[in-house]
Amino acid sequence: MKRFLVCLAVFGALLGAVFWHGIAAADDQAPMTEAHITRIRSNCIDAQATLYRLHASDALQRVNQGQLYESISTKLMAPFDSRVALARLDGATLVSLATTYDQQLTAFRTNYQLYEEGMSNLLAMNCTNQPVAFYDAVADVRTKRQAVHDNVVSLQKTIQDYQNAFESFAKRFEAEK
After folding, report:
1. 104 burial type by CB count under 10 A (0-12 exposed, 13-18 middle, 19+ buried)
2. How far is the CA of 135 from the CAs of 14, 17, 86, 143, in angstroms?
3. Residue 139: CB partners within 8 Å, gap ≥ 6?
């Protein structure tokens, strides 16, 4: 998780420094000046090298995080919730959180796929010949990467909420014994 956040920060800082202009100007539809275009062209090789490293790092991180998130759902939450239901105990909060978690996991997968497609398209661009399109694609990929980050944050929060609900359930269960 920390590595993902560090990569996100480095990605944002690097591209913000390289492309001085920032996303806000792109949103305002301010025309790119020749100086901006020249700056993009002159930093093209460095930006692409950084994007390739980020892409490789993100792919590894996604596989590891994805497997972990999937395991939490299929090997922890679902079996426990099933046992609670079979024992006819009140586990409504746990089931609700597990359902929320599964929905968030689906959103994570979808948003990561969109990010991956955007990044692949970005890496295929020639920023020397297409500096404006490259800049726009970087802004798009940055937005998609932020969506993935937001999914990770919400998954982590739901995991923590599930843990808290589990601990509360365990205390109630022990008190009823």
Report:
1. buried
2. 13, 13, 55, 13
3. 23, 26
Give the integer Cα–Cα distance in Å for 175 and 172. 5
What SS3 class is residue 29? coil
Tokens, residue 100: 């929320």
How many CA within 13 A on the CB side of residue 164? 7
- C-alpha dist (Å) from residue 81 to 19, 29, 91: 49, 50, 7
The pTM score is 0.77
How much is the pLDDT for 2?
Answer: 44
What does the pLDDT look like over 83-123, one tens digit per residue? 999 989 888 999 999 999 999 999 999 999 999 999 999 99
